[in-house]
Fold this protein.
Amino acid sequence: MSGVPAGDREWQGGEVGARAVCVLAPNASPMTLDGTNTWILREPGSRRSLVVDPGPLDAGHLDRVAELGGEVGVVLLTHGHVDHSEAARALADRMGCGVRALDPTFRYGGEGLHDGDVVEVDGLELLVVGTPGHTSDSLSFLLLAERAVLTGDTVLGRGTTVVAHPDGELGAYLGSLRRLRDLAEFREIEAILPGHGPVLDQALPALDYYLRHRAERLDQVRAAVGAGAKDAAAVVRTVYVDVDPQLWPAAELSVRAQLAYLAQAGAGPVA
């Protein structure tokens, strides 16, 4: 909820590298930023594509995805939140393919997705990385041919994401950020292709920022509790005073996750 400098530019989607096209869904809001990024991935010269996060059930958006996607081999979901998954079955029916996801609820005519899986469509390969924390079913996808990672809502192109307590969990989220950072360093990942907001061209600095931001927020939450904040709403009013009040309900989810994390770490329970 405080900006990542690399992601401050205006974002309208479009081609990214030789293998990715972002179709921006028309669902912009304070929570979804410019809208949901639907990613169409295709190996150059190949017949079929795959689609990540079809987004909301909007006819015009689906028409555009179908037009650019051509023959779609599979639909993948980074997680089940409605702004990413609502159109998945409709697109799969239209394109004659399946939907793969970690959560069985969202699978359709296809296999699940699990950490370590490799998804291949006509020469294009994605490595599935389990990145729980924003939600328990959150996944990221390494597109090594482009030195890029698709992060869904785990890392956004602008601002920071919500740890959606109680399904989301801060300890898992911090572990996912560290894992992504290690993978980015080891695999020489340069770009983050997020679920919302612009592409981040410098993956390591963005992930370092996210980790630093979470540590700073935890310090602020500890201080607020120490100063007498009795519940999550009171912590939000203290810690997120510089944030648009429209985002306070989302901030409260993250605060609840932070309080649960601190309680598990021995800081004592907070209502």
Q: What stands out?
A: Confidence is low (pLDDT under 50) at residues 1-7, 267-271. The chain has seven helices and eleven strands. The domain at 5-202 is CATH 3.60.15.10 (Metallo-beta-lactamase; Chain A). The first helix runs from residue 59 to 69.
